[in-house]
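tool_call predict_complex ligand=FE2/S2 (inorganic) cluster
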Amino acid sequence: MSEKRINPDKRALSVGEVARRSGIRVSTVHYYDTQRLISSWRNQGNQRRFSRDVLRRIALIKIAQSAGIPLDDIRQALSVLPHHRAPDRQDWEALSRQWQSVLEEKIADLTLLKDQMNDCIGCGCLSLELCPLRNPGDIEAER
Ligand code: FES
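tool_result ok
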């Protein structure tokens, strides 16, 4: 969420500059701000401003999103980074290690789904009793 303060940083970026330099829409910049993934402040003219390190934060957010990391997890991971500087190489290594287990779980889930789909090819029954895609983990049997 935005913080109301005056920042003397003349190198601060407008929301349009952040969007253009990050390759995302202005509305996405606002969304990240309201979701507390990035932060901004208002200048004396009541215009929203961002420090330059927000560009690296957005890059990390986009990479994590493309890997399927939920925004809540991204927010949690970014919240432990220092706010006074851009994430550096060590920060990125720590984040990527943290997200590797999430990615490995997703890969295992997708591999299982792919194997189950292979078993179903040519069947088409979609039976609640027999089909692992329709009834994963045999939930119906437990009922
Ligand atoms: S479609 Fe028949 S077992 Fe899945």
